[in-house]
Amino acid sequence: MKLAPLALAAATLAGGAHAQNEIIKTVATQAPDATETSPDGSLAVTVKTDDNARPVYSITRRGKLLVAPSRLGFIFTDAPKFERNIQIVSVTHDKADSTWTQPWGEWRQIRDNHREMRVRLRETTALHRIVDVVFHVEDSGVGFRYEFPEQPNFKHANIGDEMTQFALAEDGTAWWKPAFEWNREEYLYEKTPISAVGTAQTVMTVKLADGTHVALHEAALTDYSAMNLARAAGTTFRAALTPGSGAPKVTRDLPFNTPWRTMVIADDAPGLYMSHLELNLNEPNKLGDVSWIKPGKFVGVWWNMIKGEWTWATGPKHGATTANVKKYIDFASANKIPGVLVEGWNVGWDGDWFGNGNAMQFDQPTPDFDANELARYAKGKGVYLIGHNETGGSASHYDQQLDRAFKFAADHDEKVVKTGYVTDAGQIERVDADGSQHREWHEGQWMVNHYLRVVTTAAKYKVAIDSHEPVKDTGLRRTYPNWVAREGGRGQEYNAWIGGKNPPEHEANLVFTQMLGGPMDFTPGVLSLTGSEGSAIQSTVAKQLALYVALYSPVVMAADTPENYAKFPDAFTFIRDVPTDWEDTRVLNGEVGDFVTIARRPRTSRDWFLGSITDENGRTLTVPLDFLDAGRTYTAEIYRDAPNTDFKTEGRHAYAVETKRVRKGDTMTLVLAPGGGQAVRFRAR
Amino acid sequence: MKLAPLALAAATLAGGAHAQNEIIKTVATQAPDATETSPDGSLAVTVKTDDNARPVYSITRRGKLLVAPSRLGFIFTDAPKFERNIQIVSVTHDKADSTWTQPWGEWRQIRDNHREMRVRLRETTALHRIVDVVFHVEDSGVGFRYEFPEQPNFKHANIGDEMTQFALAEDGTAWWKPAFEWNREEYLYEKTPISAVGTAQTVMTVKLADGTHVALHEAALTDYSAMNLARAAGTTFRAALTPGSGAPKVTRDLPFNTPWRTMVIADDAPGLYMSHLELNLNEPNKLGDVSWIKPGKFVGVWWNMIKGEWTWATGPKHGATTANVKKYIDFASANKIPGVLVEGWNVGWDGDWFGNGNAMQFDQPTPDFDANELARYAKGKGVYLIGHNETGGSASHYDQQLDRAFKFAADHDEKVVKTGYVTDAGQIERVDADGSQHREWHEGQWMVNHYLRVVTTAAKYKVAIDSHEPVKDTGLRRTYPNWVAREGGRGQEYNAWIGGKNPPEHEANLVFTQMLGGPMDFTPGVLSLTGSEGSAIQSTVAKQLALYVALYSPVVMAADTPENYAKFPDAFTFIRDVPTDWEDTRVLNGEVGDFVTIARRPRTSRDWFLGSITDENGRTLTVPLDFLDAGRTYTAEIYRDAPNTDFKTEGRHAYAVETKRVRKGDTMTLVLAPGGGQAVRFRAR
Fold it and tell me: How many domains does the structure of chain B reveal?
């Protein structure tokens, strides 16, 4: 990738834009139209300047306009904006086709086959500032970012907001959750016309009138504020950066690059999931040897707390006692579940910690929690503990303890730590060295940096991080593979509470929205289907099992209690069997918010696992078993809804387990109950 | 209005909430429901705390829920938010019924008949901060504001945003324009379901499914940032304050009050216009004697510029030459039009002034503009000049010149100065005393203060202000009567340009949206119906006349050129006759964005004037002449569309003038052409 001298000019202009080899176009006088296509030619991105000399980009798919001319640019809090009076001074093209390996993931091998176009924008007015826009175009979507190169008149950027637009060329349906509301990211998904979206968080997924699916998001969000999508009118969205406590939403010294703004584009919902654009736009692993990161399931001293039967605070109902935890260790060990999460184990929970975690001490266990003894006991049972650092949103207080928190975790063989930032949006406590107090947003630049500080500090101690109340996932697991999972949405915990139970469609929304960004710690497997005070969870037993395949995470909880699992020995077999790390993944069918069926092959066997889930509607899905190895016989161990199963009635508890012999080329019929699902292990013979 | 000691408690709780006399309720333990009703009992506002001890208010109309429980509160950039753990510690009620006089306006007398409720909110947590919410309830709507009293633990508020919600209880239609877009306020109105609004500026007008009309806005916006309405999901809006260059959107020392958040509520669109809530919520005149403020029409050296035939810059096509201006003075004098606006008269226009007005000198005329001679000449003709200060958005540069700018205006007998801030949103140049550079928004706190600084400085010199690219109008003309008009929307100037002509519905939108906030300098009266290069304006001649009544402003331009007016002597008679100051106003009919008919009585005669305008649809309206004096005969001088008039064809130029004798009790039939209108003078005999 090189920038041509201006002299090259028109000579290389004609014709060559889509050639196989790297080509260079540069025009000194008349601004060129800059166009790049995807490797298969289906997607084309064009950058121009409009009548007001404002740069705009547009995208076509198979020749049809998908993204109408959309602005590029920035406003700053202390300098003129970069948007008008812009000239395209050079356009360079590049391409690459490579394959890389995930240390853990849904796929072992990831292909990155893309074309790239760098468009250099320069102001014609006094400052002559330069910003490059770089487009990365795959067959499955487009990413672009701004790159601010080193230059004489532009040393520091105080960004008030981005002017970046996404002008969808036609209306359709959008699945989205609102931005800037008090409860951070824990909202159910709205399904509305695109033209009725308010201000949305990303991932926002849309299905245009012509059936094309687009997932709007960002990749590689570091040292920048998270992007939301504000709809002005019609179907045009504008980047709306998350605020911080400071005047600019982003403050950076040049040179720097923004995160990638991404649009995954496909014919259908499964196609969105099968794209690797998000990961490809993140940088390779920066942690070196990461063999110490171990995907796996875990149980935990948690569901009884979230249900209100045990407490995080010390006292007669304290959950994290040495005796309780030993029972969970025994249970995990007996069922080959490697991890045991313990919450409420440390000093700081006694009092009002919501939004105020300044009493939390992440290396001081409560007196009834014998950390050394439990570490020893767990190790003897082949199990490790998962630590828990709940900050109550007091991020600076946590920053001050990071090293000793993770030293404590490492000293006690905790391979994963779950973090928490339970406070309302905009209420993160930041205290600077000078004692000044600030209130930050979970997804603002300061917190984006905080989360990564936690992850990289943890890596020094060989600890993996499962962030709750996190910044959204933008594929950074590629670069920092110890960032194994996040919450960042409505998990199963809502099903513990009397009010606000997740509706059956929720997980079929998650797969095609939030989880396009990365793994979610949803905590499936509540086979009792019962929250506090006996309240009914709107699911079926078979669906709880299917979630282990449908909702990908390298660390997955078996969220119910040992006592409850004892009541379902046959169903629990699937939870014991299902792995959390995959060689290959295929999304066999699906519609956003309606249903999805995913098949995955473990890294360690020739088996396949299948999970199929539906919304409030029962449905029958026919699945060709094309993913199986040719010539091999499999025993399908099927965990399915029974004929009378229905999430709305006591029949939700009904399920059936059966086996069937199948081969590649067979077709399987999945009968899903209303609110139900089906889980299958294809055991290779 | 008093606050009771806490001891009074439950004794006064029962029953008295709606009594005629002032009553006081205070509850120390159980938070009371606080309710206030409008004088006629149709509207009721209730404040409670919800399960999370968050304060919410709701509004019913005739017993039906209109605004569902909606949050109240604030987030701060440097302190915990004020929203949870809130207790209602006292509720006081008050009422008043008075009438006050406008020095100029749509009505001379304004009745303010309201009930008031003050709800004191106090935190139960450490800081024990106190905020009062004060509701002002009229029959035509509700206003409320937050009052931050003096208190020990709360000396300064750095407001990140308001949590104030407006949860409309049902869907319907909304008329709105987008907030935070590049072009400030100059957008056409969107008409969408309420549930499809993005982020809207106020005034936003909605018509609920049951027909109820609500206009959401604010009143008395001073030393605070303007409020926009962000829709999260459904029909719930949240206050979204305009940003500034600083970290907080608003920064204030306690004690202070916010602007009033207003909801004008009516059965129909005319009912919205007839409300005086907006003005009643502003403070009385602070300027003392304002008899020097003279409402009136004006012509100007302008239309030929905006059309591109003359220039603001000096040179061969310079508009503001002594000779040209004398012609306009002659024309104004001959037609009893008191004002002559001149743009481009001062040093600073030669160069790129858009977004950069640092060359502007507001007391230095160009060499071809003899200011002293013109002032003398105008005075001799009974005419005054209207000054023009275009800042190009360089507000600090203007601040430095304010005194000499208005001294120059006063020295040259300019009774009005039109100001301008032509730059993109977020691009106002602010330079502090220390030389630091900032970029501000037109409607942020700093600019809100700037505009008022301009107005109060102008008042010292007895100069009135007509702000272009202003902050929106929130009724401050009551407090500062020299703030006579603003632009703040798409005016007729868009009709000068080839692209972007206003559609016929535009003015019927303006009346029931922006102009509920106050007078707009729309510049009607382009009888030639022709913009640059002969481009057609989407109007009829009769509609251009009708706009003088339909669109209220105390200063109104006759925007076309003297040469063009010479071609329409009969139609021009109406422009010569129509006054700009009114004793009484009646909105006879109307639907937002479709049509409106308004009758107004001048302050100086027994005449009435009527203006009726329609959108792209022709329509026949029947108007009972109930507003005329009983027993008096009137000659109706009618300026109407002809049978073949149509804005879409050359027929748009066709009109008819006729007279008719009418009396109170008669009915008049108005036949409006597509895109047309009708103007009537009822001359009292």
Answer: 2
Q: Does B682 fall in a domain?
A: no
Q: Do B81 and A427 touch (CB under 8 A)?
A: yes
Is B29 inside any structural domain? yes
Within-domain flag for A338 = no
Q: How many degrees, rounded to 5, is the angle at CA A369 between CA A363 and CA A375?
A: 75
Which of A262, A280, A298 is the endpoint of a domain?
A280
Distance from C-alpha of A397 to C-alpha of A419, rounded to nearest angstrom: 13
Question: In CATH, what number is assigned to the domain containing residue B249?
Answer: 2.70.98.10
For A85, the domain range is 6-280
**B152 is a domain residue:** yes
Task: Locate A517 and state its tokens.
Answer: 């960004």
Q: What span, in angstroms and rounded, lies between the C-alpha atoms of A77 and B184?
A: 17
B320 in the same domain as B264? no
The residue count for chain A: 685
CA B190 to chain A, closest CA, distance in angstroms equals 7
Q: How far apart are CA B515 and CA A430, in angstroms?
A: 44
CB atoms within 10 A of CB B50: 12
For residue B471, give the DSSP letter: P
0.90 exceeded by pTM: yes
CA distance B195 to chain A (A): 6
Pick the last residue of a domain from A280, A299, A318.
A280
Same domain, B242 and B390: no
Chain B residue at shortest CA distance from A436: B78
CB contact under 8 A, A232 and B84: no
Q: Is the peptide bond before A133 cis (omega within 30 degrees of 0)?
A: no
Comparing CB atoms, the residue among B77, B180, B187 nearest residue A439 is: B77
Q: What is the pLDDT of residues A528-583, one digit of tens each?
A: 999 999 999 999 999 999 999 999 999 999 999 999 999 999 999 999 999 999 99
What CATH number is given to the structural domain containing B370? 3.20.20.70
pLDDT digits (tens, 9 = 90+) for B325-357: 999 999 999 999 999 999 999 999 998 899 899
ipTM of the complex: 0.89
Which residues of B lie closer than 8 Å to A, measured between beta carbons? 75-81, 83-84, 125, 160-161, 163, 178, 180-182, 187, 190, 192-193, 195-199, 230-233, 238, 243-247, 352, 355, 424, 426-427, 436-439
Same domain for B165 and B104, yes or no, is yes
